[in-house]
């Protein structure tokens, strides 16, 4: 799919909780095909410390309305700035970027995410549903303070939640959840902190299950031109932005 | 969006934008910097790369290099640090797999050549000399991100001369040598490399730099130090281009923090015959088209008929009409 640079108008900036917000952007043109796991590089204007663009996964897309949604966690100045942008403002995006999740054989899939790692899971869940697969979501948060209404996920499949402090759902890490021991899944997709993804990949490997993870790395360009997002894999050096961000966990050499 | 933008880029220019670098004729002075534009095709979704005066492709070495461990990038105010470390698949891979894919674009592809030893530079240059559609090379003697070679050649004048002379002997096409900013006297290097037979100089490469994460009490880059690029280095680059221009009679290509046409024009005024755009491509992959149009507008607005008239056109304050390189 051809990549484009485009100004999209922000029509809604929704604060979901202390840390997360969701922005809705509308394009003046028909959207290109955007696949789950792909991302956009967003230019953050008016921030002194934000020189480079910021990468964010597509959270949702509505083709007929020419709208895309991003789910963002405030971690620094760039994301803080984006959280304050008012409707009517244009945001400059380069998109769609990166390699998306793939579809193996099988019917029922487990989607495990931690924190803002849930961002690509909505589009992935929809995409699986559209191909007559059953997604089951397992999400881990630090506490109820990171939680927000998950009805859009619930419309697609069962949703299980864990929190580290037990303030919501099952107490503990996602990786300790009994669902991971369930034998009924044909594969696992994961996105979140690297130690979590590593533990999930380990479970998948033991059961010889298909498993894909969406990785992060520092990125200067997002489209394969700068070679700063390199990561050593079992198949040599890969660029997280263009060979990934989604990789099969068999390829990944974990750093944690 | 895209349609409108394209039409705007295709306005016929009024001024003469052609410039000459050694044996090369560039249709305009705007080129893209090595390591910041891939091999070119990475950008074809965003612009027509054949409108560029030239493309300096990624650093190429004798054999495969995997580059440095990550993190390889740190952002800073108005710039970034990188420690890519010349990741590339080697000159033979370039000849067999990359060259066939790029050779038909109508622009000048200049290969950036690097090595750990003089023999490696010579080997790469010799192989590239045989490629019909590669009209020149740029010797990178200034990479701060490799353990041996790289910057060592660029910061030790006798080594810089030796590598330039050795490549000059076997490379008959346009030979550009890329200078390091990590030296005390640019004029000393500029003159010595001109004397060693270079057809042109390009500068600057990145400045050796460092980023620290105070919370973790650790360096940000896996290699601890890296190369600083972007607008943060522009004033340093302008000064060095100006010094180089006044030290040699071969053309100088200006590089460092160019984000728009005004930045590019400043380099031309300082003495550059052409410019390279690096880091800005990451933020706006079509920036070079805007720079071409902006230079054209400027020439028309100020009544210049050719961009060549701009080179070194800086008007110095009274009493400063003769260049005196400063030693610090
Ligand atoms: C392919 C990809 C997809 C992403 N998708 C999303 C998404 O959908 N939603 C979302 O909220 N975030 C996502 N991220 C992470 C997001 O890009 C960063 O959080 C953001 O760039 C931080 O910008 P900032 O200016 O607010 O923070 P900065 O000021 O740049 O950094 C603040 C702190 O966060 C750390 N940090 C910054 N970037 C990263 C990173 N990429 N990985 C780990 N730590 C980082 C820094 O080290 C620093 O400590 C994604 C990253 C990648 C690479
Ligand atoms: C990610 C990155 C990779 C680079 N790789 C090379 C390289 O392979 N060879 C080289 O001569 N210069 C390399 N450079 C230096 C640039 O070509 C240029 O000299 C420098 O970045 C300054 O220009 P800028 O401020 O416009 O980026 C690299 C720079 C960056 C940011
Ligand atoms: S971020 Fe530039 S190559 Fe991946």
Structure in words:
The complex is a heterodimer of chains A (256) and B (328). Chain A has 256 residues and is mainly beta. Chain A folds into two domains: 4-97, Translation factors (Elongation Factor Tu (Ef-tu), domain 3, Beta Barrel); 108-213, Nucleotide-binding domain of ferredoxin-NADP reductase (FNR) module (Rossmann fold, 3-Layer(aba) Sandwich), CATH 3.40.50.80. Helices cover 13% and strands 34% of the residues of chain A. Chain A has four helices and 16 strands. Chain A has helices at residues 77-83, 121-130, 151-154, 194-206; strands at residues 4-15, 20-26, 39-42, 54-57, 60-62, 67-73, 90-97, 108-114, 134-141, 159-163, 170-171, 187-191, 210-214, 230-233, 236-239, 246-248. In chain A, the strands form three sheets. A seven-stranded antiparallel β-sheet of chain A has the order 4-3-7-1-2-6-5. Chain A has a seven-stranded mixed β-sheet with strand order 11-10-9-8-12-13-16. The longest helix of chain A is centred in the C-terminal third of the chain and has 13 residues, at 194-206. Chain A starts with a strand and ends in an 8-residue tail after the last strand. Chain B has 328 residues and is an alpha/beta fold. Chain B has one domain (19-67, 86-206, 229-309): TIM Barrel (Alpha-Beta Barrel), CATH 3.20.20.70. Chain B has an eight-stranded parallel beta barrel with strand order 3-4-7-8-9-10-15-16, surrounded by seven helices. A four-stranded antiparallel β-sheet of chain B has the order 5-6-14-11, with no helix packed on it. Chain B has a two-stranded antiparallel sheet with strand order 1-2. In chain B, β12 and β13 (218-219) form a beta hairpin. In chain B, α3 packs parallel to α5 and α7 runs parallel beside α8. The longest helix of chain B has 15 residues, at 287-301. Mean pLDDT of chain B is 91; it is low at 1-10. The chains are: A mainly beta (256), B alpha/beta (328). The interface between A and B is medium-sized, with 34 and 36 residues. Bound molecules: flavin-adenine dinucleotide, flavin mononucleotide and FE2/S2 (inorganic) cluster.
